[in-house]
Amino acid sequence: MVPPPAVHGGSSSPNSQYIVQFLSSVLSQRGPSALPYSEDVKWLIRQHLLSLTDAYPSLQPKTASYTHNDGRVVNLLQAEGTVPMVFQGVTYNIPIVIWLMESYPRHPPLVYVNPTRDMIIKRPHPFVNPSGLVSTPYLQNWIYPSSNLLDLARDLSLYFGRDPPLYSQRRPSPNPNPNVSPSPSPNFTPSPSSNFTPGMARPAIPPRSYPQSPYGSGNSERIHPQRLSGTDDPTEVFKRNAMNKLVESLHSDIGSLRKTKEAEMEGMFSAQAVLRQRSDVLAKGFKEMQDEKEALEQQLQMVLMNTDVLEGWLRDNEGKMVNSINVEVDDAFEPCDALSKQMLECTASDLAIEDVIYSLDKAVQEGSISFDLYLRNVRLLSREQFFHRATTSKVRAAQMQAQVSSMAARVSQYA
Question: Could you give the CA distance from residue 412 to residue 218 in angstroms, rounded to a whole number?
Fold first, then answer.
């Protein structure tokens, strides 16, 4: 993604507005297409690039894919263009690319010189290696947050002016002038660009003035006709136009395809979130069903145990039913101890008195007995019921104490 080209022949404010809009747009993106920079430094990155483009309009910010040494491909910001340098009183433009890595601005950017097909990297060079990677003292001593791109560009201009990293290779003229003796060795000159157009990646060559090469002497006018003839070749022009048209069409298709895929990915992410919520609900429901199943299985085991106990009791007492014609209800159940027998008798008496009081209530409502007789009987029955209930409470406490003592005795056996 690149910002709109600079506007020539007028004020630079429209181009500055385009760059501001472009940076605000790419740095505010979210989701899969977001740039891999920390949120707390995006504003500082924006200010660094705006300051750089204000001072050096040729360095235009854009986004591009960067491939790390381990094969990872990330979408990063870069500033591509030229920085001016002054060598022997003449201004030259050096094409460079400044990559803002994921850790920028806490760590320095990567700077590469970007030679054209007619340029060669000087070997050896104190600050540029054969691959084009630049390493100046400013980059080596990068300090966050004081270091910035504007000072970096000024530093590059200063060091490149002392020792130019690029020079253009001279090619022999196809039709040399027989009156001019050719140079015995190839001569090289840096590519000057007095009429450089902002936003272009390669420097342009002035139409008439050709300064002396810092790396050798020679006639620069021999190169000019050859380049003009190559530029004016209709076949070359047609090929170049066709390639540009093809690149534009491909770029448009890729942009539309990218938007479509991003929309599809957003939809997939939304569907994934919904599926995760439903998965959580299903997992929770399944766990509740598992717990309920375990509880029902425990209840079933308890019911089966009680059924076995009742069936055993019936088998033990079935002979008694056969041998006895009249069986007393009180003898049908035998308490296991004296406390249980006393508890059974007190509970039965309490419930019987409750039934009698209920019957007296009905009788007095119907007028079967007088109210004085009702009060006298209720007073007597209530006193008796109180004693039975008090006895029941004491028996229950005694049974609880007996159970605790029994449990303590069993625990002491296993200790």
Answer: 113
